[in-house]
Specification:
Blueprint: H1 3-13, E1 18-20, E2 23-27, E3 34-38, E4 41-47, E5 50-53, H2 61-68, E6 75-78, E7 81-84, E8 87-88, E9 94-95, H3 96-102
Antiparallel strand pairs: 1-2, 2-3, 3-4, 4-5, 5-9, 6-7, 7-8
């Protein structure tokens, strides 16, 4: 895992602002919403519903690396298809807890 990924995810989980290269963490005014962006596109969000993720429209190795550094998230690719925690995933905005409950993980 790249150092930038470790630093960004640590900041994201601690609800601290971060910016380096193509990765940013933005914290809402009252720390109620924290967003992880890659190339300006939302790939993870922490809010009162929990952890929500998306591919941001780009299913790249860097997107997978950033997402895989988050707790409870395992994204892999097989034959150009993405899988989230072992189940086919289109990369759309997804609540990780609800996804896991729906798919029994």
């Amino acid at each position: 895992m790249r150092k930038i990924t470790q630093r960004a995810v640590t900041a994201f989980l601690n609800r601290e602002r971060f910016g380096q290269g193509n990765t940013q963490v933005i914290v809402g005014m009252h720390c109620d919403v924290t967003s992880l962006l890659l190339h300006g596109r939302l790939i993870a969000r922490l809010d009162d519903t929990g952890l929500n993720i998306s591919s941001g429209g780009w299913q790249t190795a860097t997107t997978k690396e950033r997402l895989n550094a988050l707790p409870g998230v395992r994204v892999h690719q097989k034959n150009y298809t993405w899988y989230l925690n072992g189940h086919m995933w289109n990369g759309g905005y997804t609540n990780v807890k609800e996804w896991s409950e729906l798919h029994g993980k």
